[in-house]
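hi support,

uploading two proteins for the ticket. first:
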Amino acid sequence: MSPSLDPKELSHDPRDPSPWLASYLDQSTPLEDGVKRAWLADAASGSRQYLLPLIRPLARTCIVLIQLLKIPLPRNWSASRALHSILARGMRRTLSPRANWLIMRHFHLGSQILAFIAANSGVKVQLSPLTPMDIDDLKEELFLKHDLNLYNFIINLNTALRANGSTLAPVPLDQVDFSMLEQPELHLADMPNGRLNAIDLQSAIEIFTPVYQLFLTDNDFWRASNSLQLDETIGIYCATILNSPEHLILLNNKHPLVPMSTLRAGYRLVLHGLSTEMLHCLLMQMKATQAQQRQGELSPEA
């Protein structure tokens, strides 16, 4: 059952405080209100409470077994189209509306953040935004393209900066380009909500991770797993542009130069999604601050 996150609906008992209400009311880290409600309700669901503890050890065992299975297979064997078809069908039929909504948002937010860095880098960087509006759009290999886009963006950005003899530098807030940032036109109410749509986000990711490994090459899976550590890289880029290194405290996926085991890829993918939501929320807050400052400059003095 989803927790009530409305202080008006949930009485506070100091002897039995609600951890969900505490997390919801806490404002130490940026997160859009609707996203926080969906995230916490998903985390408090019966699926995560009872299903995830069973799924996680089984999923990690499967990762090891699949790694052994792939030893005799051709090195470049993969079936990416089939993989994405399976993932899309699984999402539509079994994932909770909240889980599907958060996954769909992630593609939009990731594309906007890369566009933000590119626009404020001082160099021209090629972008390949991913903006699915329907779960079936994911069948176009969007999970794989999402990982490829991240690596290609870092390579293209730094190649252009080196060719220009420059590096990323702070940009005054009144000159930062926030124009690409917006809330995606995706609505929780539009997500599939049948009788079987009950699996929470974390359980779904743990299930999907060994499936992802099975249908891709070892190189693709390893690259996808380690792309999660690029959260630190993207966070540093944004912090440099905004001249706000204090926001690097939001990073939690470890150093990109120290590859981690793929066994924890599912858990780290959840952290990746949350980091993206928080970074996007922070950028939206700073966009609003810039708009207020500009409005103040245009308003006549009293």
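and the second one:
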Amino acid sequence: MECDKCGRDAVMHAAYSGAHLCEDHFCASVEKRVRRRIREDNMLPRDASPENPQTWVIGLSGGKDSVVLTHILDDTFGRDPRIELVALTIHEGIEGYRDKSVDACVELAEDLDIHHELVTYEDEFGVQMDDVVEKDPENMAACAYCGVFRRDLLERFADELGADKLLTGHNLDDEAQTALMNFFEGDLKQVAKHFDASIGDFEKRRDAGEFIPRAKPLRDVPEKEVALYAHLRDLPAHITECPHSSEAYRGEIQQLLLKLEENHPGTRHSIMAGYEELAELTAREYRGEGRVDLNDCERCGSKTAGDVCRKCRLIESIEAV
């Protein structure tokens, strides 16, 4: 097949659009979608300036998504005095997995010459995920523990780094899966929360209060295209699944979406187009409903609805085994 734009050999065919693109035009297409999403979400405030710059902290795991996002952000804003990019990597303590991806993070940060912070579960919590999985005091999936710990560290260290926004590498597949899960669970309040937390236009979101606003600039790009971009740009991405990954329900949704996309190209894009519109409407309707006052955790100071946060209770449970 030939590229629709220049006649050179195509490296990919997007069934959802019918486009055949060569390496150069494919990479340009990915970059254009990320930049358009940044613009449409109003991520860069009008008052950002060299005197009043924005600090964007990127959750850099070393996987293909976060590596591609970091590369494109640096290519777009690396010389822009209105924005400072900082990479934040969390080491969970998973033997044979995270060490290699941390190496990819270090290599990328050095190549791009951006500030890079590395934080570990062991240093911050005194635990490693391999040990948590073995003990499993709460009889939960590994992702349930890890999600709590990871969110805590991303939020805490993004705040310490002076972040105005926390950016993550969620792609189109990730977000379409979340949208379907929220639909199937009938959880409109969660849909509203999703809008304000990470997918809404920054000029339309509710103020995040004491939390760092999040953004997902890669969410218009399918997962396979992210992987192809990383390969074509020869980026140091560590592409492998976490050995403790066990989100069974999301896995079912993933397979369902892949089948739908195969039979009906464009399904993921259609889901997200409708979902984002619905999310804005539900945010207006449910915003503030059921909202609780947050306290400082009496052990670590994190924000929580109770006296002790979920993270501290989990660590206590793990240490008791």
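thanks. also noticed: Residues 5 and 21 are 7 Å apart (CA to CA).
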